[in-house]
């Protein structure tokens, strides 16, 4: 922990979470979460279903209030922000939903342009088109602008979902189960995209998953969540060096079946 604190001080911390607690009635979901995300870093949060990963993300973007603890995002204490400031902060934090959340009746181009039109009304049609083209190229789907979501594969929809988040050029990306429900090859492509986004757009990311291949491929650091706390944290190799308890179950389930 001491090492971690020293590291935090020597680089820019974009998310700093301290002693976070959240319960729903007598269900104690988060029980003392501490986490730092450094600029330009990908941190993977690994955990079984129902361990509170989504609750954590919702607290980070101010959709849920914690019972105790602090969350600082890009220098702002999330809990103290009023509505307008919270909305402004959310523009800098892109949230890529598990479901892709595309509008079925809109083309890919319209889906991507939607957040720009809603948030940046002073952009001309040409500027919007150019921004959409840049993102489509970055996510590897340059020719899909006129397609409807129903014409896309699951992996392509995920890419467009990520593109729609990227279009506002967030400084932080939060990915919720980016590879869920995809075949291994498409997963691999998505992992590459997550790394490419980091390099090209200089984003810092939290990636929530239970896919260990994804964790290994994209995580500069991995934090394993169990019963509301992080039970292990480090590089993938450090975390999975000693395979016991939950760590062993995770590893065996992903790699030895
Ligand atoms: N608004 C809420 N009210 C009551 N309980 C909630 C609420 N939100 C989450 N929970 C409970 O908190 C626990 C953690 O939920 P969460 O969605 O964060 O899990 P998760 O780790 O993201 O799981 P999964 O991997 O399945 O998405 C669950 O037991 C859930 O039922």
From TrEMBL:
Residues in the signal sequence: none
Q: What are the alphabetically sorted keywords of the record?
A: ATP-binding, Nucleotide-binding, Transport
The source's domain of life comes to Bacteria
Q: Where exactly are the transmembrane stretches of this chain?
A: none
Q: Which residues form the ABC transporter domain?
A: 15-252
Can you name one GO molecular function term for this protein?
Answer: ATP hydrolysis activity
- What protein is this chain from? ATP-binding cassette domain-containing protein
């Amino acid at each position: 922990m001491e090492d971690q604190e020293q590291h935090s001080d020597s680089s820019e911390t974009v998310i700093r979470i301290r002693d976070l607690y959240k319960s729903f009635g007598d269900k104690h979901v988060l029980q003392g979460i501490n986490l730092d995300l450094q600029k330009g870093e990908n941190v993977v949060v690994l955990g079984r279903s129902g361990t509170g990963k989504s609750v954590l993300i919702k607290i980070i973007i101010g959709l849920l209030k914690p019972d105790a603890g602090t969350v600082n995002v890009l220098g702002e204490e999330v809990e103290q922000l009023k509505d307008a400031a919270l909305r402004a902060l959310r523009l800098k934090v892109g949230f890529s939903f598990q479901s892709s959340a595309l509008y079925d009746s809109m083309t890919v181009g319209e889906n991507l342009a939607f957040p720009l039109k809603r948030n940046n009304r002073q952009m001309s049609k040409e500027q919007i088109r150019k921004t959409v083209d840049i993102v489509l190229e970055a996510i590897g789907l340059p020719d899909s602008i006129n397609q409807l979501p129903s014409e896309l594969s699951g992996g392509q929809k995920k890419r467009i979902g990520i593109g729609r988040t990227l279009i506002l050029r967030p400084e932080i990306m939060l990915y919720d189960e980016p590879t869920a429900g995809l075949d291994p090859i498409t997963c691999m492509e998505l992992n590459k995209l997550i790394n490419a986004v980091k390099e090209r757009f200089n984003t810092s990311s939290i990636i929530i998953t239970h896919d260990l291949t994804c964790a290994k491929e994209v995580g500069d650091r991995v934090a394993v969540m169990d019963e509301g706390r992080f039970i292990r944290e480090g590089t993938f190799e450090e975390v999975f060096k000693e395979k016991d308890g939950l760590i062993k179950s995770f590893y065996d389930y992903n790699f030895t079946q």
